[in-house]
Specification:
By secondary structure, the chain is mostly beta strands. It has 13 helices and 41 strands. The strands form nine sheets. It has a 20-stranded antiparallel β-sheet. A six-stranded mixed β-sheet has the order 4-11-12-16-5-6. A hairpin with a 5-residue loop joins strand 27 and strand 28. The relative contact order is 0.09.
Length: about 1000
């Protein structure tokens, strides 16, 4: 017998969030050949092939972060949790020194990603070309004069010195809730436990109907899959085998526009531009980000082989049909051998960037892709309304981005050129200039003509070539790449026994899995990742594990004649010990973690009655998992802040070197042995690390703090190498400052941008993935399943469950890492400043310690992400005769219990909040209930072609709404999920 089947799918889905869509196209073919090769057996040869691709711009589940409504609120005193700014605006030049102070709310708040000397573009939401901004006469500009204003000659060679009279400025942004509440000026207890707050007023921006990104992001999947199977049985199907080969080639990716921190709507609060001209967009709403967000690609090649052999032994074949053969029954033995190979290539890239010429022209030197000097930032204004004239943003009905943000070709960029072009002027001649102090007051300074911006080319323009990932430059825009080769070899045996005329069915299974894994990372050349992977065979990791399961079902047939209405009763029991055959994981230090293991026990009762019209199954289960991956983002439970584990020690090393430059260059302290080539810059970030009684930098104290940092640095060389942190730990521990400079892999701290990136983009070298946090979990509860055939045409299904999930035993490596690093940053070493803003000690404690303490506090309590109760009811009625024959209608009811959304703070004996969450005082979200409806019609068009049309209505009679996801300790909603109201879908299906 020869049979074949072909199928095609073209599914175009559009969403309420315009212009979101999902276009799914698939082609499927199957061939089956069943030749009669043996008289007492069957042969089957099967071949399947599928080709598919998905092109999408999917909707977002969350509203944007709200950085617009706090601007209208009155500024509140310290200690409150209600953030307000009183509609304040700022001069980015005159108030620069004022607003970058450590205690300023605006020290580390930006317009999107505009925070360094990179290129910025300005759009209006409905336009695809960057717009002119007042005196700039074009749509792009350098965000600011390069901070150090390093003097260069006409060939771009550094001459040293600063153009102090060319005042620098930086565009400031409205802080998010977390940025505001964790700043030193607020004084809120438990501030680190507060998260950002999302926009909830759809009259400001209708997030139900609009995708903020517009048509500027993409997601895609492409795949080709083939499957070959050969099966053969013998002796009337008592003996047989099956061989299967499965081949898959899969690719997916995404082109980002707004990263998580920049998915926010705010207001431009800058009165002027950085060249001193008035800002025509002050007071206008905007969204902003950077081509740094870029995108990702994943390529997966999978090849699997499986050989299965079985043999069935029947007592009746040996003993004949008698009572003894019925008792012994029949037995099925199955053996499996398989190999599953999976090679996964993950790549990250910038969406667009400048070529190196811009960083050279601005005196920053040659910069790689991992430096902000190459980034292209953008700002899109969402309307022309100047909110300085409004009392609130309510009713603004802001537009989504409807234009295209995709710079290509060449851009004309405005920047401050520090090239000397004054002839006949002595650079050492006297010159006075005005600067602004920390109170934004003008200060007269005595300088030289080298400080006079009129002696340089100054504000000018240049044509900058743009590299674009979607315009043929992808190979030059890769920033990271990791390749994982994972091979799993498995062997297993299963026995199934059918005793007493199939009354007792038992199962015993054993499996051994051997996992071999190796990883490689792309080489970085000038910050560009070159996809030339080279595995280190010495770093191949192999893990072996075993799984054992057994159980049985006892059909109590002896009761069949006693129980009424054809009732049948069965008892069920199963127990399993499982090893998860998966790629090895690395802990926070880069050491291997044992693969997850689980023990499961379940028992229950199954009931069939009313002559099989009603079936019930009630099961009690208990699952204990060991070394389970902690749920959540990278590092599990720490959200997006786990990068601080490598960033705080790595970035503080470069900041520490900048501090040594500063105190040496200004004569505050003679750093012993400092190489002369490093004393070029006077980077501002060191100035407030330590001050004397008069508020002036204390050079000796700063040197001691830096010395403590290097000599007590706690990470091992192995851990640094695993993350690709270019640090020589042995030289860091030296008492010679010259060794500290050699320990950090860069010519100077400034060349390293005072924030070097790890070679592997946060991925562990030996594992090809980020670090994993683990815990043990215990889940126990009850499950009920019921199916009923109320009439021959009316079916009903009910399932319900009660689950109690408890986490325990947070991974020892996380505990050790948090203790070691927290102790380190709570010493003088932690007083080094995060780019002149908060200390690294504060960043560590606010970003990681609070989340860590919350994880510890939740041990032994119900897992917040698991609702205790769930239930679903599904029913369908089919018309079998008359005019309505072929018509069917159905519906479903879905219900879910409330979830824990957060915890209030603990209180002291006087009733005041203390800095710790109280897991005994949780805050719950609402219960969830929804109804769905469907109606369809099916009929045969011809003898071989069937047509079916079906209408599905989801969330019947519901309106769009926000469902709470998390709450801050003061009980205020933090994040919410967009729940789509009633929606419908029509599908047509032809079968032949």
């Amino acid at each position: 017998m020869l049979a074949f089947r072909v199928a095609a799918l073209d599914d175009k889905t559009k969403y309420k969030q315009k212009p979101a869509f999902n276009h799914d196209r698939r082609y499927f073919g199957a061939l089956r050949f069943d030749p009669k090769l043996f008289a007492n057996g069957s042969t089957s040869i099967r071949l399947n092939y599928e080709d598919g691709r998905v092109h999408a711009n999917r909707p977002r589940d969350l509203p944007p972060i709200d950085r617009i409504t706090p601007w209208f609120k009155p500024a509140n005193p310290a200690g409150t949790t209600d953030f307000g700014m009183g509609k304040q605006t700022y001069d980015p030049i005159q108030q620069y020194n004022q607003l970058i102070q450590q205690d300023s709310l605006f020290k580390n708040t930006f317009m999107g990603r505009l925070y360094a000397a990179d290129v910025a573009m300005y759009y209006y939401a409905n336009e695809s070309e960057a717009n002119a901004l007042n005196s700039l006469n074009h749509g792009t500009s350098a965000m600011q004069a390069y901070m150090n204003n390093l003097v260069v000659d006409a060939n771009g060679n550094r001459l040293g010195g600063n153009v102090n009279g060319a005042l620098i400025g930086r565009y400031f942004g409205i802080p998010s809730m977390n940025q505001w509440i964790t700043s030193p000026v607020t004084g809120v207890t438990g501030a680190a436990n507060y998260g950002d707050i999302c926009l909830t007023d759809k009259s400001i921006f209708d997030f139900y109907r609009n995708l903020l990104d517009g048509d500027n992001k993409r997601e895609w999947q492409r795949w080709k899959a083939a499957n070959f199977a050969l099966s053969q049985t013998f002796f009337d199907n008592r003996l047989g085998f099956e061989f299967v080969y499965d081949r898959q080639r899969y690719q997916d990716g995404q082109l980002n526009l707004l990263g998580a921190p920049e998915y926010t709507i705010s207001i431009d609060i800058n009165k002027t531009l950085v060249d001193g001209s008035p800002n025509p967009n002050c007071g206008k709403p905007f969204v902003a980000a950077s081509g740094q967000n870029g995108g990702t690609e994943t390529f997966i090649d999978r090849d699997s082989f499986r050989l299965t052999a079985f043999a069935e032994l029947r007592a009746a074949d040996l003993l004949g049909k008698n009572t003894l053969s019925k008792i012994i029954g029949r037995h099925l033995f199955t053996g499996v051998a398989s190999q599953d190979g999976k090679v996964m290539d993950n790549r990250g890239f910038l969406r667009f960037a400048t070529d190196p010429s811009f960083s050279l022209a601005t005196g920053q030197g040659p910069m790689g892709l991992n430096n902000a000097a190459r980034y292209i930032d953008w700002v899109a204004y969402l309307g022309n309304t100047d909110f300085r004239t409004k009392d609130s943003a309510a009713g603004a009905n802001l537009s989504r981005i409807t234009g295209t943000i995709n710079p290509t070709g060449t851009m004309k960029v405005r920047y401050f050129s520090p090239v000397w072009n004054a002839t006949g002027i002595d650079p050492a001649a006297p010159y006075s200039y005005i600067s602004y102090d920390a109170s934004a007051q003008p200060v007269s300074n005595a300088g030289t003509q080298a400080d006079n911006p009129a002696n340089y080319v100054g504000w000018t323009t240049m044509d900058v070539d743009v590299m674009n990932a979607t315009n043929g430059d992808l190979e030059d825009l890769y920033t990271s790449g990791t390749k994982n080769d994972n091979r799993i070899r498995s062997h297993g045996l299963t026995w199934q026994g059918y005793f007493w005329d199939d009354s007792l069915v038992t199962t015993l299974g054993w499996r051994q899995d051997s996992v071999r894994h190796k990883a490689a990372s792309a080489k970085l050349v000038d910050g560009t990742a070159v996809m030339d992977y080279a595995y280190d065979d010495n770093d191949t990791r192999t893990t072996v594990g075993h799984s054992l399961s057994w159980g049985g079902v006892w059909h109590l047939k002896m009761l069949d004649k006693v129980l009424p209405a054809g009732t049948k009763l069965s008892l069920v029991y199963n127990q399993a010990e499982n090893f998860k055959a998966d790629a090895p994981r690395g802990d926070v230090f880069g050491h291997p973690i044992a693969n997850p293991e689980a023990k499961t026990k379940e028992y229950g009762v199954a009931l069939s009655t009313l002559h099989d019209r009603l079936n019930l199954r009630l099961t009690h289960f208990e699952t204990k998992q060991k070394n389970a991956t902690l749920t959540g983002a990278t590092g599990g439970g720490f959200g997006g802040n786990f990068y601080l584990f490598w960033a705080c020690p790595y970035w503080s090393a470069t900041e520490a070197l900048a501090a040594l430059e500063g105190i040496q260059a200004t004569g505050l302290y003679d750093v012993p042995g400092i190489p002369a080539e490093y004393v070029k810059n006077n980077w501002y970030s060191w100035q407030t690390i330590a001050v004397d009684a008069n508020g002036n930098p204390d050079g000796a104290r700063i040197f001691q703090i830096v010395s403590d940092f290097f000599q007590n640095f706690p990470l091992s060389q192995y851990t640094c190498d695993q993350y690709g942190l270019q640090l020589d730990v042995a030289k860091m521990h030296s008492s010679n400052p010259a060794d500290w400079f050699e320990a950090v892999g860069a010519d100077t701290p400034t060349d390293q941008a005072l924030g070097a990136q790890p070679l592997y983009a946060g991925v562990l070298k030996s594992f090809g993935t980020g670090p994993t946090a683990t815990n043990d979990t215990v889940s126990k509860g009850w499950e009920l399943e019921a199916t009923a055939k109320i009439t021959p045409n009316w079916d009903l299904t009910l399932n319900a469950s009660k689950t109690n999930a408890v986490r325990s035993n947070l991974s020892p490596s996380i505990i050790e890492a948090m203790q070691v690093m927290t102790d380190f940053f709570n010493t003088d070493a932690g007083l080094i400043k995060w780019w002149g803003g908060p200390t690294f000690q504060a960043q560590w404690n606010n970003g990681l310690v609070a989340a860590y303490n919350a994880l510890l506090a939740q041990e032994g309590s119900q897992a917040a992400e698991v609702p205790e109760w769930r239930a679903n009811l599904i029913t369908t009625y089919r018309f079998g005769s008359g005019r309505l024959k072929g018509l069917y209608v159905g519906g479903a009811y879905r219900w879910e219990d409330r979830r824990i959304l957060g915890y209030r703070l603990m209180k002291d004996s006087s009733g005041k909040d203390i800095d710790a969450i109280n897991v005994n005082d949780p805050m719950y979200g609402p219960t969830s209930s929804h109804c769905d409806l469907w109606v369809g019609y099916s009929r045969d068009i011809t003898a071989k072609v069937n047509w079916r049309i079906q209408l599905n209505v989801r969330n019947l009679l519901e309106a769009d709404k926000l469902v709470p996801v998390s709450m801050n300790p003061d009980g205020v909603l933090a994040l919410a999920r967009i729940q789509e109201g009633m929606s419908w879908q029509i599908s047509n299906t032809f079968s032949f």
